[in-house]
Each structure stands twice: as C-alpha cells, then as structure tokens.
C-alpha cells in the first residue's frame, strides 16, 4: 500500500498539510513530495473556499530538508554531472519555494520539531510560523560542504535581516525556538501539545477575514519585496478599486456598523 507523502485535511476554510515521511524525518528533496506540495498550492489557488493553510510534519521532526542518504549515494537529484545536478535542483526542490511564494493564501508553519537545511527554509517559505518548544532551526548547508540550494540565502535575509541570516548560513548552528522568536523568525512558541491548536488559531484569525482582501493583501506583501514604492502604490490602487466593489466589503461595513462578526462568501 502506497502512503501519500503529504496528508491533506480541511475544516472551516483551513487546510492542514502534513509532511508524511516520519521515518526519514520528512525530507523534501524527493520528487513525490515536491510534486505533492506544488500540486496542492495550485489546487488552493484555484479554490476560493480555502482561506489559509497550516503546514506541519508527522513524527518528531518538521523536516530534515534534503535526503542526506541520497547525497551520500549520489542518487536522485544529487547524482550526475554538474549540468545534471543544476537541472535537478531547478526542476526539483527549487519548485517548492516558487510554488509557496505564489501561494495566494497565507500559510502558517506549525514547526513541531527540528527544521534543518531545506526544512528550515521550508518554514521560512511560509508567511507565519508557530514553533513547539521542541523545535529548532538550522541553516546547516555549510556543515555538509554545500550551500542553500533552495533559495535560503534570499528567504532568511528577508525574514530576519542580513546579520542574523549570515550568522545562521555561515555557521550552520542550531537556533532554538525561543531564540528564533527573539530574532523574529517565529511568531509564537508553545508547548508541543498546544502546537496545532495555536497554529490553527492563528490561521483562523486570517481565515475570518474577507478572502479576496486577504489574497490581495498577501500579494501586495510579496510585491513589496522587489517593487518600488511608486509601483506598489499603483498596484495597491488597482487592487483597492476591486476590493471596494466586492460583496464582502459591503458585508464588512455592515458588520462593523452593527457590531457583529462578518459572514463572508468570497464574492
């Protein structure tokens, strides 16, 4: 019986994605998990019933990143000539940051345990992060004589600034959950038994809002990373014009005036 590498559940407009390779600590370099994550992002982008996602790992680890056994054996994406390796990264694990960057709904990482190498980067690809007290983060590529091949140098710098990103990437040292919170790498640290509840509570705070507005707000946050202020203002004006003409905007105004929770349909 084949087990899916990614388990998907849905409740109250929130999907939960669970990396489901616990025996190998949830690596994300194998084609099956790359395909599963990318396919799920595409499905969510097309399904406006989904308003937020929680991403976590089965077992004791969030994600060990690349499959080190395959590196040793020079198998899969880690085998072949330099040309083949380059294309292996581009057509393999690098599809994940591209997909999550363009995921239209906010993604909350529920980091249940170690997030190592590309697993650390996977957490940073998410918009928000809740960590268990048992979690730790390591941008540990240099300790294996390689570099962040999945965009980690860009992702970490955006998340915690150049000095902290340099410290993580150049030492490869572990950063415990409490330190990660102090650095702004995670939003909240909770006890392990409270992790999924806390992550879903954060996702629910997002999902209760008009979904079109949330998707557009996330898009603006992404665009702000590389656009000028003038360009972003133009895009904001165009998106705002769309937002003002949604039924959910009218419902939000009515709910505000009547001092009640809004009921949003995504229209």
Automatic annotation (TrEMBL):
Signal peptide residue numbers: none
Gene3D superfamilies in UniProt: 2-enoyl-CoA Hydratase, Chain A, domain 1 (3.90.226.10), Lyase 2-enoyl-coa Hydratase, Chain A, domain 2 (1.10.12.10)
InterPro entries (UniProt xref): ClpP/crotonase-like_dom_sf (IPR029045), Enoyl-CoA_hyd/isom_CS (IPR018376), Enoyl-CoA_hydra/iso (IPR001753), Enoyl-CoA_hydra_C (IPR014748)
Catalytic activity: a (3S)-3-hydroxyacyl-CoA = a (2E)-enoyl-CoA + H2O; a 4-saturated-(3S)-3-hydroxyacyl-CoA = a (3E)-enoyl-CoA + H2O
Entry keywords, A to Z: Fatty acid metabolism, Lipid metabolism, Lyase
Role: Could possibly oxidize fatty acids using specific components.
Family, per entry: Belongs to the enoyl-CoA hydratase/isomerase family.
Protein name: Crotonase/enoyl-CoA hydratase family protein
Source species taxonomy: Bacteria, Bacillati, Actinomycetota, Actinomycetes, Mycobacteriales
């Amino acid at each position: 019986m084949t087990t899916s590498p990614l388990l998907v559940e849905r409740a109250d407009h929130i999907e939960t994605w669970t990396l489901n390779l616990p025996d190998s600590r949830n690596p994300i370099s194998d084609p099956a998990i790359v395909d599963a994550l990318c396919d799920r992002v595409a499905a969510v982008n097309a399904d406006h019933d989904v308003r937020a996602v929680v991403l976590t790992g089965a077992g004791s680890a969030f994600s060990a990143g690349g499959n080190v056994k395959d590196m040793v054996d020079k198998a899969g994406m880690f085998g072949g000539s330099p040309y083949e390796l380059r294309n292996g990264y581009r057509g393999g694990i690098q599809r994940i940051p591209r997909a999550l960057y363009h995921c239209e709904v906010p993604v909350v990482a529920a980091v249940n345990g170690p997030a190592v190498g590309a697993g650390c980067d996977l957490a940073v690809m998410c918009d928000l992060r809740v960590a268990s007290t048992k979690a730790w983060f390591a941008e540990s590529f240099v300790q294996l004589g390689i570099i962040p091949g999945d965009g980690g140098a860009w992702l970490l710098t955006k998340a915690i600034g150049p000095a902290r990103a340099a410290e993580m990437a150049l030492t490869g040292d572990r950063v415990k959950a409490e330190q990660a919170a102090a650095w702004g790498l995670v939003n909240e640290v909770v006890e392990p038994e409270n992790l999924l509840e806390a992550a879903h509570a954060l996702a629910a705070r997002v999902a209760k809002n008009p979904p079109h507005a949330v998707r557009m707000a996330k898009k603006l946050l992404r665009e702000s990373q590389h656009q000028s202020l003038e360009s972003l203002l133009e895009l904001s004006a165009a998106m705002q014009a769309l937002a003002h003409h949604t039924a959910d905007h009218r419902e939000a105004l009515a709910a505000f005036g009547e001092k009640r929770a809004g009921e949003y349909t995504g229209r």
